[in-house]
C-alpha cells in the first residue's frame, strides 16, 4: 500500500516548525539563555562567498538583540531585492538599511519574539522564495570536517 504525502501540507508544516524554533531561540536569547548570535543562510553556490546568498541573522545591538535580513549591500546580484520585495519586508516590520545597520533590521524584545520569528520566516519564504527550510543552513552551527563535534 502506498502512502500519499501532501507536499504542500508537509512544506507548510516544516515552515511552522522553523518559525516555532526561531521563536524559541529568540525568546531564549532575549532572556539571556541559549546561543546567539545565529545565522540562517540559503544553501546556494555563493553561500560562502561575498557577495552572498540570502540570510537572516540575530546579532547583539546597543539595545539588546537585532534581527537582520540580508540587503543588496551583501547579496549576490542574482538575489538583489526588487521594489515588491522591499515593500514586503517593510510590511512585515523590517526597517530599511541605515547608518546603524547595513541590513534590513528589527529590534527583538520578549514581547515581539513570535512576531519577529514570523517575519524572519516570511523574509526567507515569501521574499527570497526559499521553497523549504531544508534549503537553509544554520551557518554558526556548522562543524567543519576536522573539528570535533560540540556536545
Tell me what the structure shows.
The chain has 151 residues and is an alpha+beta fold. The C terminus is likely disordered. It has 3 helices and 5 strands; from the N terminus they run H-E-E-E-H-E-H-E. The chain is globular.
Per-chain topology:
Layout: H1 7-30, E1 38-42, E2 55-61, E3 64-69, H2 83-91, E4 104-108, H3 113-127, E5 136-138
Antiparallel strand pairs: 1-2, 1-5, 2-3, 3-4
Task: Label this structure with key terms.
5-stranded antiparallel β-sheet, globular, alpha+beta, 151 residues
Relative strand content: 15-25%
As a percent range, the share of helical residues equals: 25-40%
Radius of gyration, in Å, reads 16 Å
- Mind describing the biggest β-sheet? 5 strands, antiparallel
Query: N-to-C SSE series?
Result: HEEEHEHE
Question: What's the quick description here?
Answer:
The protein is α+β, with helices and mostly antiparallel strands.
